[in-house]
Amino acid sequence: GWNEGYGLAINGPPPSGCEYDGWDKSSYASAERGMNPFWKGEEKCLPVLADDWTDPDRIFQTFSNAYHGLPNAARARNMKDDRQWYVKDADAPHDPPRFHQGYPWESSTNGIAEFRGNCFAGAMRGDLLGAKWNGWIWRVDIPYLDEEEGDDVTISKLEGAEVGGLEVVYGPGCSILTLDYTYNNLKHITADDEDAKSNPGPTAFDITPWRGNYRFAQKIVIGGYNLNGQGETKPPKHRKATKFVIDGVECSITSQSDTRIEGVVPAVKSPAHVEDLVDVVVHFNDGTKSVLPDSWLWADPGDAIN
Fold this sequence. Notes:
By secondary structure, the protein is mainly beta. It contains two helices and 17 strands. The strands form four sheets. It has an eight-stranded mixed beta sheet with strand order 10-12-15-14-13-16-17-11, with no helix packed on it. Strands 3-4-5-6 form a four-stranded antiparallel beta sheet, with no helix packed on it. Strand 7 (166-171) and strand 8 (175-180) form a beta hairpin. The longest helix is centred in the N-terminal third of the chain and has 6 residues, at 73-78. The radius of gyration is 24 Å and the shape is elongated. It starts with 56 loop residues before the first strand and ends in a 7-residue tail after the last strand.
């Protein structure tokens, strides 16, 4: 949403023939200046400014050359993209390719994270999370499963997540973290997956982080349920994870509990698949295994980091 403390929004180019040098700089607006904070040029070359108004926050699908209705004077000038002189508010109609409207959610929403876990049969995997200040966690349901193909994006309050926090972070084991600055608390939400509870076998939910530079070793955490056989539905005897394998590469385990496995993905000279998601398979000493499909990516940032 718009923050009026930072000045009025640009809604049109300055008069033709203006020479100015202030578009790429930033300063706070003030009552005396009464102009957009990204402007430091002469007043005679001011762009058109819009009246104050309030607007919901919006979330946008991103793709090349998209314009989402937020003015950017530097890009409008330097890239000769006239679209970016103008405001398109949350009521503006969707008009591709010139303008792509977003999905509104109540302001002030702060922070965004991707839910990467396979709990709940993968129903939330690929969805986005946002934190409503002093309110709840939003769930942005993005069609991910094959049976959801063609469905539209929906935004709703996540059940059981009225946490009053600011910022949101996804954590191992289908957990969600948020900070409550009002009462100085760290809030932690965990998944209550009945299917995982009823399964006597191990259930891995996710791997965190989910990608790493293949040239270097990477510490990871695999979250899940009943990994050691200490859950509600117990196997005949205690089990233990022996290794996890990523696209044929064996990885070592350093510590484990019933809901968490810590390990190391080794450096790989030449992975079979780079910049592609591959399966992670966790093996246990009782012959069972748990598969995380399309859950790890070996990244190749190039030679710039060397």
